[in-house]
Amino acid sequence: MPDATAASLDLPAFAPDAPRPMQKQPDNILKHVALVGVIAVVGYFSLYALDSHLRVRKGPWEVTFAAETNGTPFLVVNHPAFGIREVKVRFPGEANPLTNAPVTVRFTQPNTKPAFGELRFQDATYLPGTVTLLAFNHEIELIQRGLALDRQERAWQPGLTVDLAPTNQAPPARPLGRKRNY
After folding, report:
1. What is the DSSP string of 76-111?
2. Which of 24, 69, 143, 172 is the most buried (most CB within 10 A)?
3. Residues 6+ apart with CB under 8 A from 62
């Protein structure tokens, strides 16, 4: 006979020996945590490898420091990935500081030492980045969009030769410290 409370609530009546509906097994939390951990580790290493590839895929600036037979120092800039070849910057009227010429420097790591002059700035995060040299009191900046000589930008042209005479104006001196207003 059907139960009076079940009939009043319109619930289905089950016989005492009838099989009950299956209850869900509790989820295994460790299995989910392990799956998320594996996905995170694989994703991290995949993105790290992609970022490492993007940082070096275009290659560094290659600058050859040398001197002509008459002793005039010069540097030659090359970057094969951008089609920049044999861009020559000469320093007529300057003494040759090199004892063993030519020297080719690849600016792959921060604070790479040039063969002559000083490294003013280098951003080697994503190659080729930016390289700024101070040579014979002339500022030479290698950037992807062009060659900046004494803060005057020029478009890259394969085979370009530029002379920087000692009479050209020197760039402003680097500030020694931060100016304080107190």
Report:
1. EEEEGGGTEEEEEEE-TT-----SS--EEEE--STT
2. 143
3. 77, 78, 79, 104, 105, 106, 107
Per the structure block, which two tokens stand in for 98? Answer: 């090199």
pTM over 0.90: no
Cβ–Cβ < 8 Å for 150, 158: no
The SS3 assignment for 57 reads coil
Cis check for the bond before 16: say yes or no (omega within 30 of 0).
no
How far apart CA 63 and CA 165 sit, in angstroms, is 20
CA–CA separation, 138 and 165 (whole Å): 9
- Assign 168 to helix, strand or coil: coil
Query: What distance in Å separates the CA atoms of residue 67 and residue 76, rounded to the nearest whole number?
Result: 10
